[in-house]
Each structure stands twice: as structure tokens, then as C-alpha cells.
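Researcher: Here's the sequence for the chain we discussed earlier.
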Amino acid sequence: TPVHRTPRVVATNRQAATIDVDVWVLPHSLRTPVPAAIDRATDGELGRAVERGEFIGAAFETSVARLTGWKARYVVLVGVGAAEGVTAGTLRRAATVGALAARGRKLPRVGVLVPDALAGQMPRAVQSVVEGVIVANYDGGTYKTTSTSRFWIEECVVRVDAADSTVTDAA
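Model: Thanks. This is the structure I predict for it:
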């Protein structure tokens, strides 16, 4: 029985709302507003969560909301701490946390929205989030004595800034 399955990976710079995934994972910095398009698509739910302090963007905290008007059904905000402290490792762990939330909801098509602020480090940032999703697809439960059905993430779509072609040209 396999303990891991590598998902199909796609990098794109298309508009996120039009991409057919089940859930978007959004790494989100400490005490920053939710991107306007996502806040509108959640009917303001995530913006209100940030305003009341329910979600502040602390490292690896999460907030899940339903999306309307997008092809995806959900968005998972994953805190990454202070923006200036975000590293490749932080992005990898944030992608893992978001992908594990997707696996827990049995959502096989995961998209990760790479923050536009990382445009200068885009190839490394994309590599890190893909690694994070792959790590989330590991299932050590195979070694248990009782058998349970496995659920795998089948597809990982990485959405990069529309102005950055360094990743999508290579993909």
C-alpha cells in the first residue's frame, strides 16, 4: 500500500477566480488585510475575522471560508507571521498546513496563491509551495494495523502574479 502520491502540478498566472480547483490556500502575513477580491468572495467573512482578531496571520494558524462567484468552493488562509520574515521554509509549511486542511475535507484539487509580494523570489517560492503540498500527501497511517481508506490530493495548481512569467514560461 503506498504511503504517498505525488499530485499533478500546474503553474499558472490566470485569474484565480476562473481556475477550477476545490480550495485555494492563501499564505497570509501578520496583521495585513485580506485581499479585496477574496474578501468579497467570502462576503466579508475573512475581513471581519481579521478585524475582530480571530485570525491575525500568526505562523500557521488557519481560517477557512466558503467562496462565492469563484470556481473554487473554499479558501484557507494560512498565517505566515511577519511579511519580512517569510522564507521558503515558511511557505513550504504554510502550503503543507493548507493542503492538510484540504485533505481533511476530502478536496482533491488544491490551489496555492503565491503572494505577489514575493515576485522577486517567484521560482523559489513556487518550488517551496509545491514541496509543501507534496509533503501533505504523505500518509504514515499505512503502517497501522487497521486499514483505512486513503485520500490523496490529485492536483496542485500554483497561481503566481500575472506579471511574472519566469515560472509559467518554464511550466
